[in-house]
Amino acid sequence: MKTKTTITIALMILLSLLQTNNYAQQDSSSESVRKYWDKVNKISTYYVKGTGITKKISDVEIDSIKHLFYHAISDDPIGYRISKDNERDSLDNILKENHYNSNLIAPRVNSLKTIYNFIKKKYGKNFFEILQCPYFLRVKLIRDSLSKFIPTDPKGFRTWQGNLICKVEDVIKGEKFFKIGQEITISYLVFWMSDSKTPFKIGESYFMPLRPWGTNKVYKKLTLHFFPDNNFATYPINNEIVSTPGNYFGIGETTDWETFKNNFIRKYILN
């Protein structure tokens, strides 16, 4: 009886948190991010009440969630990442304050997984992964350098950081943040690329998925956004032919740039 009472109280606490918007969107000034988390909270509330999340999401609603998810990430990539950090911190705090009783956060975690699974099921796993990348650029590598990566956590390990200084040649996703001709620096930890078979070459062009990078909710750097295709976000463009081994984007392993770009926009850039 005590266990059932504890779980009931826990669910009531969680529901209260959801209803008062005490989650990720509270620290974001972005309308797109706020709308996305409002929708997530609404669905999570259904889940907590036990009414059955599968009965509450129609195909129309899945499409709506997909668009809200897309715009939260593309309109405000840093705000979205900070909101995810806040979400994680909120759940961690609930766990700590309640002696790590996972029943307290299970409905919230499960509802988020369910939302993502609906998108994956309807549009495909690759589509869902590509949806999460905020920037897709064509860049030319001008020069590169190495620097020491010093973590903010004193207990963290120091390692080498690679820095790619590139000129933006085209913007496929991220027009709000990048312009053609702009010079940008793309940083990464060298050991991330230890298994890469495609080394970066100065003077060559690349199709690159990118994302904000930082720690402690401060995202000041730009880094590579890896997909599970073992290409390490490195897709070279030679003689206007882009190589995407494994065909992760479903456009072709070797495609002329304009065809690839147009098909990519048609498939993955949402209005």
Q: What is the first-to-last residue Cα distance?
A: 52 Å
Number of strands: 8
- Percent helix: 40-55%
- CATH class of the largest domain reads Mainly Beta
Give the structural class: alpha+beta
Give the radius of gyration: 21 Å
Query: So how many helices?
Result: 7
Q: Which CATH architecture of the largest domain is right?
A: Beta Barrel
What's the structural domain tally? 2
CATH third-level topology of the largest domain: OB fold (Dihydrolipoamide Acetyltransferase, E2P)
The H-and-E topology, N to C, reads as HHHHHHEEEEEEEEH
Our estimate of the beta-strand percent is: 15-25%
The average pLDDT score comes to 86
* Shape category: globular
The major sheet is characterized as:
8 strands, antiparallel
Low-confidence residue ranges: 4-28
Key traits:
OB fold (Dihydrolipoamide Acetyltransferase, E2P), alpha+beta, 271 residues, eight-stranded antiparallel sheet, 2 domains
Care to describe what's here?
By secondary structure, this protein is of the alpha+beta class. The chain has two domains: 2-131; 135-268, OB fold (Dihydrolipoamide Acetyltransferase, E2P), CATH 2.40.50.120. 41% of the residues lie in helices and 24% in strands. The protein contains seven helices and eight strands, in the order H-H-H-H-H-H-E-E-E-E-E-E-E-E-H. Strands 1, 2, 3, 4, 5, 6, 7 and 8 form an eight-stranded antiparallel sheet that branches. Helix 1 (2-19) packs antiparallel against helix 2 (31-49) and helix 2 (31-49) crosses helix 5. The chain is globular, with a radius of gyration of 21 Å. Mean pLDDT is 86; it is low at 4-28.
